[in-house]
Amino acid sequence: MEGLIGARELKEKTSIVTDEISQDLDEVTRFLDLYKIRAVEIRTLGGNRVPDIEKSEWTRLKKRVHNEGWEVVAVSPGIFKGDHEDKILSDRELTETLPKTIYLAHDIDPNYIISFGFMCQPGESINADVVERLKLASILCANDGFPLLLENEPGSFAQTGENTRAVIDAVGHPNLYANWDPCNANILGDSETLAKCARALRDKILNVHVKDGIPRDDSEFPTYTTISSGKLGWKQHLKVLKEIGYKGYLGIETHMEPLWESSEIILRELREIVSELDFWSGRL
């Protein structure tokens, strides 16, 4: 498969979520070596999510990160994906999950820690309790030098670019930024609205997730596809990201089986688009 991407060294800021390749660290390493990727996001490994990855697996990961020279763009413990009224869950995430994640993060020195924005009812307004919990999380991460990125997700207070920005502004802490996932905004096929989302977030976007899909009538989540088969319009959206001065990573988050083969295709398609747009010129 070497010819799919080519053996040359590429000057780019492309990363991939490791579990979008495999739960097996050796398979992940083989993919990264084959396609000359040196930046990753860590979410799950060996079937467990950060910070509950088995100790032996975490030790192997830590050694691999340092020995291979990987840059860890982000770790994602999955906090605040529950309903905002579930105080027991969010208390546990603030007092156990996030502190443990921060402690482990020092082993691999990620650029960022990713959070979500609590699930809510359609049209429900953000409340003081949600603001306070996100502020506390921002402070905890700031105390150890890790920016906290709020990832937009369907059904949450942070779904579109505009309401993600509204949440960030309501929290009002300088350590809270955005992990922009245009496929999660639930507006596939509307490039102009997606452009407005990115422009609303603008200076707050520190990381971007790359996946694509086709909208479904029965779900807020799409049927995930390759870039060429999806409705997002990545070429146009990358033009917008370039226009607003985005200089961070483009992180592949495949979300479709078979993972290895699908990730290969999405990586190839993404590289073709960024090459055509000369996206990285002056941004590395």
Secondary-structure map with pairings?
Blueprint: H1 2-5, E1 14-17, H2 25-34, E2 39-42, E3 44-45, E4 48-49, H3 55-68, E5 71-75, H4 87-108, E6 112-115, H5 128-143, E7 148-151, H6 161-171, E8 176-180, H7 191-201, E9 205-210, E10 212-216, E11 219-225, H8 234-243, E12 249-252, H9 259-277
Parallel strand pairs: 1-2, 1-12, 2-5, 5-6, 6-7, 7-8, 8-9, 9-12
Antiparallel strand pairs: 3-4, 10-11
List keywords for this structure.
284 residues; single chain; alpha/beta; TIM Barrel
Describe this structure in words.
- The chain has 284 residues and is an alpha/beta fold.
- It has one domain: TIM Barrel.
- It is 41% helix and 18% strand.
- It has nine helices and twelve strands.
- The chain has helices at 2-5, 25-34, 55-68, 87-108, 128-143, 161-171, 191-201, 234-243, 259-277, and strands spanning 14-17, 39-42, 44-45, 48-49, 71-75, 112-115, 148-151, 176-180, 205-210, 212-216, 219-225, 249-252.
- The strands form three sheets. It has an eight-stranded parallel beta barrel, surrounded by four helices. Strands 3-4 form a two-stranded antiparallel sheet.
- Strand 5 (71-75), helix 4 and strand 6 (112-115) form a beta-alpha-beta unit.
- The chain is globular.
